[in-house]
Amino acid sequence: xxxxxxxxxxxxxxxxxxxxxxxxxxxxxxxxxxxxxxxxxxxxxxxxxxxxxxxxxxxxxxxxxxxxxxxxxxxxxxxxxxxxxxxxxxxxxxxxxxxxxxxxxxxxxxxxxxxxxxx
Length: 119
Hints:
Layout: E1 5-12, E2 15-24, H1 29-40, E3 46-57, H2 59-74, E4 78-82, H3 86-94, E5 102-104
Parallel strand pairs: 2-3, 3-4, 4-5
Antiparallel strand pairs: 1-2
Helix pairs in contact: 1-2
């Protein structure tokens, strides 16, 4: 079976950034949930999900994001999304996720001085 998701963790200007590439679906969402939970461990963490490399995101992936938002809120942390892909941005608008999580094209949009990934 071909690996359908790749998650890389970086520390950028006080943020823990998870760069996600591939597909986030029923098969891969548990890996994203684990990476996000580990990044949020201890509370008070600023975590950003960089989803520009995500080709497909289903309801399981959205559930992981909502779970991460709840964890961040209950532990004094922050969760933000970095994404400029129009298809995903449309999904966030349709599901109204954009109303409860900060979404920006770069990490700079979330109050830092550097983009997440200088691709």
